[in-house]
Write a structure and sequence with these properties.
Elements (H helix, E strand, L loop, with lengths): L9 H17 L5 E3 L7 H8 L10 E5 L14 E5 L3 E6 L10
Antiparallel strand pairs: 1-2, 2-4, 3-4
Length: about 100
Amino acid sequence: MDHVTGEIKETYRSLLGQMMCALAEEFTQTGVYFTNEVTYGLPWEAIVKKHYESLYVFDAAIIPKSLHTMYKDLDKEQFMHMQTDDHLYIADKASWKEAPGI
């Protein structure tokens, strides 16, 4: 993270996006989440246990089509997103200039 802006540094944004995309292609049943701190899998646990208050505890995510409806209440003030036929790409505006994978 850039300690002045709070954004992920350009050098790492591309690498993190590539890693997330590779993981999303391999693990098609779950979302791929990136955080800059430990969350102990809270977004996935929110889906499984239906405790949706933790659904958006991430800095970026790539969500498979099967879970798109879970993220219908996306806060557009906090997150940017792009949807394709296969994935929903979400990124926290404070950390990312564009969603990973876009």
